[in-house]
Design goal:
heterodimer, A: 137 residues, mainly alpha, two-stranded antiparallel sheet, 2 strands, disordered N terminus, B: 461 residues, alpha+beta, 10 helices
Chain lengths: 137, 461
């Protein structure tokens, strides 16, 4: 990568690399959130025998289970974090666009309609498919 | 470190606040001179469809009208206050619709000193879809105009009941309808049948009868045309059966009409524990829907009118309401909620979703009504550790279950008899286990019993 590439304002290999990284972090974050969420659910099942734990978890859940906001927040942090790394205006525009589109996509994915999260509908559909229910559907 | 301590303190305070706000309402006691009134209103049928018939098949519309669905109301006044009981000829009403009805009645409640409004459904299988589950698959089966008309009919019936009030007294009557116990030998067998083993159901027909002190019409005692009968019986309102496409109130309507024709009097009907699946027998042979409906209505009227005296009830009512959550395991209900078809409030937890609902207990002297939010299996009432046993352990001797009251969360099954289809849980029923497809999940029994016990503790405190 030469300085000329960068100073020419092109979207050379360097800017492409920096664009891929936030996206990867972004997707990893989403993946880990989903995995952690499922693990916590199993943990919750194991702990429900204890009223005290139940109470604490109930207090926590409203604060913690807000995936669209978490994702939007994480996306904003990523954009801010990588903003300085983007050396050209075009790279910055692309990062902002990518962050925005990614945020929108993930928000839709995790969005809740009528109080039910799409991701849960998706998981229960996957359960049907795993159980061999697709043929029946 | 300070931040952590502060956060922990906040969490503790929040937890304590949460434990205080457990969804209970205080016990309300009303006593004083008793008055009662009856009101009824037709639910107007919209001109524009679709008008999906509830209870059996998806996407099937009515083809005609036999008799229009109605709302019946009873006002029970104790001194300056009172309770309003509404019974709607329909398959069921979600708590969200019940809240809409209560909102519509807000002025009525304020102006009449009404302490509680309870709305039950007759579980009519020949009425329009009021839950949204019987439209084409994944399409809301409710007709919005009809739902508005239903709410307006509730308001009309409530006003009529309040304006009709007159002083009098209440009594509690029990009529056996089982084979060998009843007064109708020509019936040959029980009036009810149970489509699922074990064969357990309550064969008694319960009545709370209001007798006016000074009847406006000729007659005396419970046989006066002025009498108001609150009838409670366990049998799905589907004597017209599944092939019917005519709009009707089914047997609760036929029974009320027959009683009115024989001696006058006003009747309001409530379902009892009908899960698993309790319905009336086929009485017309060979089967004819209209004939079967009339026979069922006639036998019901025979039973209602056969009892003339009962236990006098004191002029006092005690009420408690308990909010509780039922773990939602039924993914079909989840999809329907996501699509905005199901209106029942739900909340997400770490273990999945929970459906929020509630129950009430209404003690009227020697009789206690359990107002439950769905189709309870009789096994949960009569069995070991059942509601009747729980009630008895709190000193409640005579318990009468009223189902589908203030909410319809579907069947409430015994957890140890909860079997799902192996590959299509809730979409298809396992053999002999249809009821699971229309239930919230196996956790409903535990949630209901615990809430019932909490409510009883507050009632007897």
């Amino acid at each position: 990568m030469s300085k000329n590439d960068e100073s020419s304002g092109g979207t050379g290999r360097q800017s492409g690399k920096w664009l891929l990284r936030p996206l990867a972090v972004f997707l990893l974050l989403a993946f880990f959130w989903a995995a952690a969420d499922l693990s916590v659910r199993n943990l919750w099942r194991a702990l429900t025998f204890s009223p005290m734990f139940a109470l604490i978890f109930r207090a926590l859940e409203d604060a913690l289970i807000l995936p669209p906001f978490l994702i939007i927040g994480a996306s904003a942090i990523l954009i801010v974090f990588f903003w300085g790394k983007m050396k050209t205006r075009r790279a910055k525009v692309l990062l902002a666009l990518l962050g925005g589109i990614g945020t929108l996509l993930l928000s839709v994915l995790f969005a809740h309609v009528n109080g039910v999260f799409f991701i849960d509908v998706l998981f229960s559909l996957i359960d049907y498919v795993k159980a061999g229910g697709l043929a029946g559907l | 470190m300070r931040k952590t301590a502060f956060l922990l303190m906040l969490l503790t305070i929040f937890s304590l606040l949460l434990s205080c706000a457990s969804g209970e309402t205080g016990k309300r006691t009303m006593a004083g001179s008793l008055s009662a009134g009856f009101g009824s209103a037709e639910i107007a049928l919209p001109e524009d469809g679709p008008l999906y018939i509830a209870g059996y098949h998806n996407g099937r519309e009515i083809t005609g009208v036999r008799d229009l669905q109605r709302v019946s109301a009873v006002w029970l006044g104790y001194g300056e206050h009172g309770v309003l009981l509404l019974s709607v000829d329909c398959v069921g009403l979600s708590s969200a619709t019940v809240e809409d009805i209560r909102e519509r009645l807000a002025d009525f409640v304020r102006s009449t000193g009404c302490e509680a409004v309870h709305v039950a459904s007759t579980h009519d299988h020949a009425g329009l879809d009021t839950l949204g589950l019987w439209g084409p698959i994944a399409v809301d089966g409710k007709n919005p105009e009809f739902m508005n008309d239903l709410i307006e009919a509730c308001a009309e019936a409530a006003e009529a009941a309040y304006n009709d009030r007159q002083p009098g007294s209440l009594s509690f009557l029990v009529t056996p309808t089982g084979e060998g116990q009843n007064v109708l030998p020509e019936l040959r067998g029980d009036l009810q049948r149970d489509s699922r083993d074990p064969q357990i159901y309550d064969t008694n027909l319960y009545q709370i009868v209001f007798t006016p002190d000074e009847p406006r019409m000729k007659g005396s005692g419970t046989s006066t045309p002025d009498a108001i009968r609150i009838v409670i019986y366990a049998a799905h309102a589907e004597s017209l059966r599944g092939a019917n496409t005519l709009l009707s109130r089914d047997y609760p309507g036929a029974m009320a009409d027959e009683i009115a024709a024989r001696q006058g009097g006003r009747t309001i009907f409530f379902q009892s524990a009908i899960g698993g699946l309790i319905m009336t027998r086929e009485l017309a042979e060979p089967f004819d829907a209209e004939q079967n409906l009339l026979l069922t209505g006639n036998y019901m009227a025979d039973f209602v009118l056969s009892e003339r005296s009962g236990l006098p009830l004191e002029n006092k009512v005690e009420l408690v309401t308990e909010r509780f959550s039922v773990p939602l395991d039924n993914s079909i209900f989840l999809y329907y909620k996501f699509l905005g078809i199901l209106k029942n409030p739900m909340r997400r937890t770490f273990s999945g979703y929970e459906m929020e609902t509630g129950l009430s207990i209404m003690r009227m002297g020697g009789v206690t009504l359990a107002l439950l939010p769905g189709e309870v299996f009789p096994e949960l009432v009569e069995g070991e550790g059942g509601l009747r046993e729980i009630a008895a352990s709190h000193g409640v001797e005579t318990l009468v279950v009223v189902g589908l009251c203030d909410d319809e969360i579907g069947y409430i099954l015994p957890e140890d008899d909860f079997v799902l289809h192996e590959t299509l849980p809730y979409l298809e029923g396992a053999k002999g286990h249809y009821e699971e497809t229309n239930s919230v999940g196996p956790g409903a029994e535990k949630a209901l019993k615990e809430a019932f016990e909490r409510a009883l503790e507050r009632l007897v405190r």
